[in-house]
Write a structure and sequence with these properties.
This protein is an alpha+beta fold. It has 3 helices and 5 strands. It has helices spanning about 5-15, 35-45, 120-130, and strands at about 60-70, 75-85, 95-100, 105, 120. A 5-stranded antiparallel sheet has the order 4-3-2-1-5, covered by helices on one side.
């Protein structure tokens, strides 16, 4: 057997036998459903999310990023599209929440959210549209 064929066969066997490391998916680090409900409820209590609006609002396309570990803190970033108070264009409210010792607090820091991958947040849409 020529060396090239032997090397190709060896590489083929090694590739076939090698186990790929399991990939970490977004659902692996997704927060528990109860925490998502708490995050949605706290976001809806914010003025930016229409908590003091005289006009009814509707949410669509809400998104959440996190958990993000930033200097020892766990942070969640919530954004949404809120319709109803303006004609045509949706408002895009945003809130940054810190989760520490089973407590959620609102942070005044939008910079920590830039560049992080978001995923759909249907809990906020459902809770916001139900009120």
């Amino acid at each position: 057997m020529p060396p090239r064929v032997a090397l190709a066969a060896l590489l083929l066997l090694a590739a076939a036998g090698a186990q790929a490391a399991p990939r970490k998916t977004a659902s692996d680090d997704a927060p528990a459903p109860a925490l998502l409900q708490r995050i949605a409820a706290l976001a809806l209590k914010q003025v930016d999310f229409g908590s003091v609006s005289l006009l009814p609002v509707r949410f669509a396309g809400s998104r959440i990023a996190g958990p993000i570990e930033e200097s020892g803190k766990v942070i969640y970033c919530v954004t949404g599209h809120m319709y109803g108070r303006t004609f045509g264009k949706p408002e895009k409210p945003k809130v940054v929440l810190r989760y520490e010792a089973d407590r959620l607090t609102v942070l005044d820091d939008d910079e920590v959210c830039t560049g992080h991958r978001t995923r759909p947040f249907p809990e906020l849409d459902a809770l916001g549209n139900a009120r």
